[in-house]
Amino acid sequence: MSINSETLVNHMNREIAAIQPSDILAFNAEIANIPGIVRLTLGEPDFNTPEHVKQAAIKSIEADESHYAPSNGTLALRTAAAEFLAQKYDVHYDPASEVIITAGATGGIYTALSSILNPGDEVLIPTPIFPLYIAIVKLAGATPVFMDTSANGFVLSPEQLQTTLAAHPKTKAVVLNFPSNPTGVTYRHDDLKALAEVLADQPIFVLSDEIYSELTYGERHESIANYLPEQTILLNGVSKSHAMTGWRIGIMCAPKAITTQLGKIHQFTVTSTTTNAQAAATEALKNGLDDGQTMKREYQERRDYLYDALNQLGFQSAKPEGAFYLFSKIPAGLPQNSMAFCRELAHEARVALIPGSSFGPGGEGYVRISYAASLADLKTAVKRIGAYVASKKQED
């Protein structure tokens, strides 16, 4: 009798059984075929990659730059990335030894967590948060420890961090993502300084995903690496700042001793990122320092409109300080289960949002709304949501 695939599944990495497919992508696919639906679901900039960046990729292809790049990335791109981070955020890395070019920030997250975690380790994760970190921690055989920040305006306080650390002596790392997906909340100078004071004397890594750093409204973005340079693995990239999600270029920085180890996992999983995409990213970071500013101004206009309009409909939100998401509490009188609410809204009002439950503890009862969509689409969505809310009130 031959072995069938169902039998072999039982012999796969046992941690995979604890991982569920992304319900964000699953829900987005579920509602995709509803005629005329306005989708405010995925974190995908609705802008095109700047023309000068595209031309750099074309020139790279025409120059037959189609061979393997160095595993950690071309020196030109690592240099451009280091200079970009230094100029924008005053964090300093040696491009020769402290910068790795990854397959998007996602590739950096996987490389970092796979490199630092052993089975039995614990990773502190403030929630609500993008669920990718949770899945990768579990794949490494480690345990995610959730810190629900919903009672504190979605900001991790030093007191909550200190209390959680005391209760979890196996903590190996803390994850930070700011400006945050899904809340749009970010950390400012005093917040970062206070968190750093808690972590400074602890043998704990800080994985800081700052991919939305160029989309920060008001005060300039500041990195946790300014306060914990020896402990921080910093993630950034061009996906959001330059509307380059499909190019899959991320930036991972850390002290040389740590980067040397990270490079091993990166080398044996990715080999290297696409050569002509690296040429495009080099152009973006070298000659397009402020390409993201035009996009940011439009995002801010959309944020202001959506925040005010949804508040008038009873959706309470923390006002986003960055990224392009609104995390809104479902008004009383509507379905309070966020998946049920989003499914009903999609079918009855033809507006697609992401259930807050997708983002971990503290997310239930909320929805994430992406305003990486045209103002016209946002106005259509608000009109439809308003009609839906009014119809539910009449039923009551």
TrEMBL record:
User: What's any GO biological process attached to this entry?
Assistant: amino acid metabolic process
Report the top EC class in one word.
transferase
Keywords tagged on the record: Aminotransferase, Pyridoxal phosphate, Transferase
Question: Locate the Aminotransferase class I/classII large domain: which residues?
Answer: 37-385
Q: Which domain of life is it from?
A: Bacteria
Record InterPro entries: Aminotransferase_I/II_large, AspAT/PAT-like, NHTrfase_class1_PyrdxlP-BS, PyrdxlP-dep_Trfase, PyrdxlP-dep_Trfase_major, PyrdxlP-dep_Trfase_small
Q: Which protein is depicted?
A: Aminotransferase
Provide the gene name from the record.
aspC_2
